[in-house]
Amino acid sequence: MTESFSCPIVATVTPYQRGGHLDLSALSDYLDLIGAAGVETVLVNGTTGEFASLTVRERIQVAEHCRSRWSGVLVVHVGACAVGDAVELARHASDFADALAVMNPFFFAEAAETGIGAYFRAVLPHCLRPTLLYNFPRHTQAPIPPRLAAQLAGEFPQLTGIKDSGKDRSLTYEYQQIGPDFRVYLGDDRIGARIAEIGAAGVVTGAGGPVAELPVAVAAAVAAGDIERAQARQHEFDRYTDARKRLPISDVAFAKAAVSTRLPGFPTLVRPPLTSASPEHAREIHTVMRSILPLLHRDNPAY
């Protein structure tokens, strides 16, 4: 089983009402925004979607709602610390998602390779759609060993690749050696213009969703072989990323505040232990967004 996704893949945010409940109406608005930007593939209930702060029932609601509102490719992340939760989510998403993603448990720092393997071997039999492993060592403190990824790919034909959100490119290279049909997607907003050089299948962006036109333009230029244009659009996207990295808030809080510039009234609340952008930070984010919006409109004259 092989599967290739149109990139960039955008990992969606999860908006909340003032009382803290899911705001599915706002989520619909966000899906419309990134769809209009040219995005064809979304990842829901990922890190940007605050999956670790959602109950299983809420993750099911988000996935079902996105399927009802998103006509493009839907990738649903089903990883959880509890194997039973991950199995439940995998069974559920297998009924309607185009693909699944599975992160190894994120609480058990420095878990042994045998334990990580046991987790995936318990969950993957219930993933009935093309499935990506999800490597995010910053949060799991346990990178998925390439040797284990290769073993799992040999055991589970639905396992088609990995989302690698780590920064160790030597590890990325080892994932790429697993096989020609094992695709590696990078969670790195700065690397889109170099994706062909690196040999990866594409980019997954979360915090870049509010300016999705930029990574979309980078990917289009790379696909057309116009590296000069890809680098120019990457430079513009890097301006946004630089601003995001300067502020002492989470990428999720930054992204929600950035979305509110384009969708007035979009809720910027995040769940503890994350903290929402302060009024001062929100003003700075809005200033950054206003400077970038003309670049987005250049590629989307309908705005």
TrEMBL record:
Supply the InterPro entries for this chain: Aldolase_TIM, DapA-like, Schiff_base-form_aldolases_AS
Residues bound to pyruvate are 48, 204
Residues annotated as the enzyme's active site: 134 (proton donor/acceptor), 163 (schiff-base intermediate with substrate)
Give the superkingdom in one word: Bacteria
Keywords (A to Z) from UniProt: Lyase, Schiff base
Q: Which GO terms describe its molecular function?
A: 4-hydroxy-tetrahydrodipicolinate synthase activity
Q: Does the keyword Amino-acid biosynthesis apply?
A: no
Q: Pfam families, from UniProt?
A: DHDPS
Q: Does the keyword Lyase apply?
A: yes
> What family is this protein classified in?
Belongs to the DapA family.
Q: What is this protein called?
A: 4-hydroxy-tetrahydrodipicolinate synthase
Q: Which organism is it from?
A: Nocardia puris
